[in-house]
Write a structure and sequence with these properties.
CATH superfamily of the largest domain: Jelly Rolls
Radius of gyration: 19 Å
Strand content: 15-25%
Structural class: alpha+beta
Shape: globular
Oligomer: single chain
Number of helices: 7
Order of helices and strands: HEEEEEEEEHHHEEHHEEH
Distance between the termini: 50 Å
Strand order of the largest sheet: 1-8-3-6
Number of domains: 2
Amino acid sequence: MTELQPHKILPRLDESLLTHLPPFSRLERRHIRTILDQATARRYDAGVAIFDEGAPAERFFMLLDGYVRVVRVTQSGEQVTALHIPAGQLLGIAKAVGRDTYPATAVTATESIALSWPMRLWESFVADYEGFATETYKTVGDRMGEIHNRVMEMATQQVEQRVANALLRLINQSGRKVLDGIEIDFPITRQDLSELTATTLHTASRLLSAWEKQGLVRSKRKRVTVLDPHALVVISQPKSGL
């Protein structure tokens, strides 16, 4: 995956675009203006690596529009999707976890727009803007918690429970109401779903096909719609023993 040569857009973004986003929601508008004036805005096509795992962490990012898949490569060379990050969140914040390199690759799931800043500004933002630091480290904690929950799922749950939980998480994070259900608001393939749940493509496909026949989901052209969320909640629960 190679980075698209991005170009600067919207030479002067209005600070009102950021006032509702967690890292900036507790800051005064003048502080947001100061932060924005140091940012570069870039547009990325779908399927582009914004940064790569192991590369020097030279910039950190705020996703303004679109969705990003956080991808890691295991020791055996397998690609695993660790998280999906929606618009309105920071990414590439290696300094927040004490790293000088990016711990994962960030790949755009859709056409996306991101702001970025030189990593040298990270410590001054954290020191100068209390609200920025508080909200940022809350985001880090939430992501660590999500990863911990997924590790626990893999250790304790059957594959159909894991796949059901993954679909429920995705509609909770990025669901869009449609006429007959809730659609995951970015393209997701069966391969993506298998990576999210540590199962094989064959197994993920078999489960989705079975659930489609039962009227629980619809999967078409990289779009997944959950038609019966309650049924997936039931499937996601541990089976009680007799």
